[in-house]
Amino acid sequence: MIKKEMIAMLLAGGQGSRLGVLTKKVAKPAVAFGGKYRIIDFPLSNCINSGIDTVGVLTQYQPLRLNAHIGIGIPWDLDRNIGGVTVLPPYEKSTSSEWYTGTANAIYQNLEYMETYNPEYVLILSGDHIYKMDYEVMLDFHKQNNADVTIATMPVPMEEASRFGIVVADEDGRIQKFEEKPEHPSSNLASMGIYIFSWKILKEALLALSDEEGCDFGMHIIPHCHENENRLFAYEFNGYWKDVGTLGSYWEANMELIDIIPEFNLYEEFWKIYTKSDTLPPQYISGDARIEKSIISEGAEIYGEVINSVIGTGVRVGKGSVVRDSIIMKDTEIGENVVIDKSIIAENVKIGNNAVLGIGDEVPNKMEPKIYSFGLVTIGDRSVIPENVKIGKNTAISGVTEPSDYPDGVLASGETIMKAGDRR
User: Fold this and answer.
1) Per-residue confidence (pLDDT) for residue 81, from 0 to 100
2) For 308, left (φ over 0), alpha (ψ -120 to 50), or beta?
3) Alpha helices, DSSP H only, in 185-312?
């Protein structure tokens, strides 16, 4: 029987609906980040940097790009004969076929996979956070405290605490109380959704709660373990950690990468971030181009100006065009004399000559005011923006649009265009 000390289960099935059109055709962990990376690269790189060589990736929503990106795990050195990376979609069983209905239900449906490795410990991770963390240090903490469950936590501002699972711990880190998204939090120590379980405790809890509808770690498993007087400990993490679950936090996290001394450095020698990289030519910057404080990925061609922006691989910025405070993802083509301000533009988008993005005042988006805010223009995968149009703030566009979609050549602030077959 194979035996691994610790295996990781990476939850990557989320739709990420708060990212709007960015996750319409792609799972949130596969969304591009920082030019050439994808969000899932961060927890996968943490695993291999922490010496974990067995990772199950649980996928569900729009997994195509995610599966193609992970492949057999070569970029992360996870192409192993024993262990390595395994993609675990929901599958048909002899008695029934079930989607994953909650984070813990997804893990429960893969008990057999975990049993193959008979691990002592199981690390549960989320596929949609940006951070660097040595899980080995957390495991040492788990062992020292003879813990059954260790929850990675970090202090958050009190006013944001109700968005998280909140723990109250004594001076030794032992958890006295756990509250999932409480209205009136008792502390500001938030769960990061990263857990180490001793295997037999996890297995017992999953089996005990297997009939629970939408079984979830924060709502069900952790409270169950606490009630059963298991030893729960809070491991406090003080590094950089960002949940890029909203367009605002996603945009901010990308913009932080281009600070002169970034708080989060993508290029540290001793803690590399690995990704699947296509063989691409170097960037081409024309003699007339101007670049200021930006990340320009391989294969990009810049003929205009790029200021304070993150440009993905294979992007083309035409002559006379200006891109400011924006994120432009892989293989997007920007025509000539285009002006783009504070926009997030997904992969394979085409923007016609003389288009202007990010004009006018901030008006709440009429369709999804909670999603399309922060003054951003958000354009989904494979969309087409015609020549000579003007687009306001807090707008969203998905699909191949035509001049007739823009009254008087303008999409006013707060408006949305979703073309046929492009409902969210």
Assistant:
1) 67
2) left
3) 199-208, 222-227, 247-256
